Amino acid sequence: MDTVVQRPMESHNPSQRNRKWPSGNSLRFYREKKDWTLQEVAKALDTKHQTIQKLETGKMKLTPEWADRIGEVLRVPAKFLGFSNAPDSYSWAVKPVPVVGVIDSEMRVNFTESPQRRIGLADASPGLRALELGKDSMPGFEGWMILYDDDAREHVTQGMLERQEQNTKFLAHVLNGETWWRRVVPSARRGFHHLESLHKQTVYDVEIDWVCEVLRFEPPGQDLPPFEE
Question: The HTH cro/C1-type domain covers which part of the protein (predicted)?
């Protein structure tokens, strides 16, 4: 027996046609990135290519159900398909997190002057930033991201030192302009600290301007469309 594929219904109710919804999404970006045509996506979903085109152009609302089904075909999470650079993006879509730099083999942060790359997260706060783990920074984790809230910078305090315990939990920005991802250790010199990291040479006696706690790791995933999309 043939399987009947159910699909979301298009509404012809005038009140539904006049309903407002976000003006943009990322369907076309990911479809073209995956080298699928409108016709191929429509055939896989047992629908018309005009329907997919209406969804892409915002003439038809992209519901979570449609995003789920198209996402299964393109192998892209539905929440990424709903993303838009416009301020009226879908509430269920991912939020952008800029990738602001790369961590090198010495656990030093090399910031990007004008970040163009972004990842998408469902729970992203306005100040959330991502740093990519570069080659040899953490063997086996190249391309992973560490996340921190740039709005949560703080000074070095005894409480902060106790929170890090024996782990590398903070970014440390020193007065010479460098930023490191290392464990902060008090120096014998008042107002100075050492920056330690496993199997790395210790950076001695630096003056720290601010620290910011690393919140979590994120595995490599889907990048968001560039700003001009």
Answer: 27-81
Q: What is the pLDDT of residue 7?
A: 53
Shortest CA distance to 28 belongs to which of 5, 62, 64?
62
Q: Dihedrals φ, ψ of 216, to 5°?
A: -170, 175
The secondary structure of residue 10, as a DSSP letter, is P
Rounded Cα distance, 155 and 192, in Å = 12
Q: How many domains in the chain?
A: 2
136 with 213, same domain: the answer is yes
- Taking the alpha carbons at both ends of the chain, their separation in whole angstroms is 44
pTM here?
A: 0.84
Contact criterion met (CB below 8 Å) for 217 and 145: yes
**155, 164, 179, 183, 202 from 191: Cα distances, Å:** 11, 18, 17, 16, 17
pLDDT of residue 193: 98
Answer yes or no: do 159 and 196 share one domain: yes
Whether 206 and 193 have beta carbons less than 8 Å apart is answered as: yes
Distances (CA, A) of 176 to 114, 206, 210: 21, 9, 12
Strands 145-149 and 170-174: unpaired
CB 135 within 8 A of CB 142: yes
Between CA 148 and CA 107 the distance in angstroms is: 15
Residue 49 structure tokens: 């290519």
**Residue 177 lies in domain:** 94-229
Closest to 212 in 3D by CA, of 166, 165, 151: 151
Q: 110 with 178, same domain?
A: yes
Higher pLDDT, 66 or 199: 66
Secondary structure of residue 125 in the 3-state scheme: coil
